[in-house]
Amino acid sequence: MTVIKQQLQSFLEKHRIQPDTAYAGIVWFDHEDIKAKENEPFRIFSQSRYSIRDFGMDPVSQDKLEDAFKLCERTPSACNRQSARLHVFTDRDKINQLCKMQMGCKGFYKSFQGLILVCADMTCYSFHEPNQYFVDGGLYSMNLMYALHANDIANIPLTMGHKTKHLKAIKKAMSIPANEMPILLIGYGSYKDKWKVAASKRKSWKSYVSWNS
Ligand SMILES: Cc1cc2nc3c(=O)[nH]c(=O)nc-3n(C[C@H](O)[C@H](O)[C@H](O)COP(=O)(O)O)c2cc1C
Questions:
Q1: Of the candidates 51, 21, 45, the residue with the CA atom closest to the CA atom of residue 33
Q2: pTM value?
């Protein structure tokens, strides 16, 4: 890490780059503070969700997981087709295997307590709606991340945007039925007392909203 820091520092100096720390870096969080926000109105609750890459040791209760799934029954879907299918993995070997195949959580997957693979049942759609299950699955996934957070379950979305061949291999390894399309993997665990997250600065809505009269 020291070598990387030195190389970065000399690169910045060489190219006279002054990093804007308001746009990058890490932010420290406190479980008590986050917990207090989990039951606040949406405007406070929604701003307190972050992708977590550093999990605690307390076991996640099955009741809380089930409550999150219950809340997600209300997720809207095209023509109310309700195509979401969830595959929950809690076996350590399965978690490790799936995370290695996912490839985007190398540095932190060992502290996951479980994985939720959000899939869509493609048979809910006809041939002229090739992308609809990604829309419905995306809505479901966002709702699930909020529902987990509302139940004090730390989580992180992990891409399932892989080549068809690799997705097939993942489905085979995890025994996912052929009619299902993986939409998003969610790693979950408990919150630590204190932890750090990537700042992930956002664009202002003013930079992408067009008002049309
Ligand atoms: C569809 C999707 C896929 C993602 N895949 C990964 C991933 O593979 N690895 C990772 O570390 N983060 C992943 N993320 C997390 C994003 O980096 C994170 O959501 C983004 O930086 C915003 O930060 P926040 O979630 O803390 O607000 C993914 C997020 C989304 C929505």
A1: 45
A2: 0.92
